[in-house]
FAD-dependent monooxygenase
Amino acid sequence: MKPLDNVVIVGAGPTGLVLALWLTAQGVKARGPGMQSRALAVQARTLELYRQLGLAEAVVAAGHRNAALNLWTSGTKRATLRFANAGADLTPYPYVLIYPQDRHERLLIARLEDMGVAVERETECLGFEDRGDHVEVQLRLPGGREQRCAAAYVVGCDGARSIVRHQMGTGFPGATYGKFFYVADVQAHGPAACGDIQIALDDADFVAWLAYDDQGRGRLIGVVDDDGADRADTLSFHDVGHRAIAHIGIEVDKVHWFSTYRVHHRVTDRYRTGRAFLAGDAAHVHSPAGGQGMNTGIGDAINLAWKLAAVLRQGAPVALLDSYQAERRAFALRLVETTDRLFQFITAEGRFADFVRTRIAPVVAPLAYGIDDVREYLFRLLSQTLISYRGGPISEGQAGAVQGGDRLPWVHTDDNHAPLCAIAWQVHVYGRARPDLAAWCEAQGMALHRFDFGAAHAAAGLQRDAAYLLRPDSYVGCAVADGSPLRLEAYLDRCIRRSEGQQ
């Protein structure tokens, strides 16, 4: 059989759509039976990765920038945390972008269609078989006819009830929280129905407001009280507690959409089995605290996409694909632990929990946010610019404060992220590039980008005259303090290049 170079993507939420976009941009054919998601917040790191596809500008223009987070208790705004104060020197996108899921997906689908890829919305994956040198995916087409599709790999982006994960036989350990959440898209008015994020911390009667615009359109997310939990499936917006909504100065005029759901926290045992992979909610689910879910799935997709393309199109060793689980599962475990703690904090019951939430947190939060290091850390955590693969199987070296596996720091004085729009390996030097490094890059057909070193580069942790070999997803693969190409050559031989005789 002729080797296959196509990938079947099961699930066409943002994770599956972005995976298809990145694969297509790198010359890999993608096919995708679809499903939907309900994600909302787009974090800075996702926008940086979208920039590589030429998507960031369109997404930012279509969404709404929530520039600050306000904490409320007992009807009074107690603290304001402004994202620009923390992130202006860290990323071109120092805010949380709110972009309704249906509009987000339509934009991604339109971009795929422009690239000649159609999402098969009414096509269902029934299962797959791993044949060793390829997979056969069983599909049910519109009208009920079934079809078998041969592919090099299959990727399950098909949500928490993933058929791909079920067929892989991997576990999905974790638990389900006792409380129900509700979500409602509404038209509202009031002093807080503006362009900021509003959070009420009243006696476990949690509610958050995420603005779609400055004219009172937005999403409310809240906890269903215990009296309503037993009939959560039949509740309407009128049945949920409205005290916390009133306490953040919002009055609802019209409800466009309402739903209730359980919150889970789970991470799969394995992200890969043979030629099958998991990404997004098929691999990990957690509380909505922090707006991390969709962004984590998109991060999965991009991490996997460049590695699949390297194997299928550039002759990289199949072992490179093992680094996908090593990098992304470790992050998912940390994320679930973090969001679990935050969720427990905002929903805990009892007098002591109420006291901490309503009296201590509103005082401590602005004081802590006033400390530069704390403010920067919290923004990095929320924006996912903190994600690092240090110590991972394809991360090497250190130059300055930057180690192999780190996201390339953004330097606003010269926008050193601009060259990353080329989804390819490249070398950055901040200062003087050695002649042998320049010759090596030319021989490899690899772009070398040199920037004049200045105070902003030093503040970002970059080292003068060092060489930073960047992966296609803009993380540092290898950092070499003296700028010598010998370490870069050895790194590529170890991680990326197929040895003689390898299949």
About this structure: Residues 322-347 form the longest helix (26 residues). The CA atoms of residues 315 and 344 lie 47 Å apart. Residues 499-503 have pLDDT under 50 and may be disordered. The radius of gyration is 23 Å.
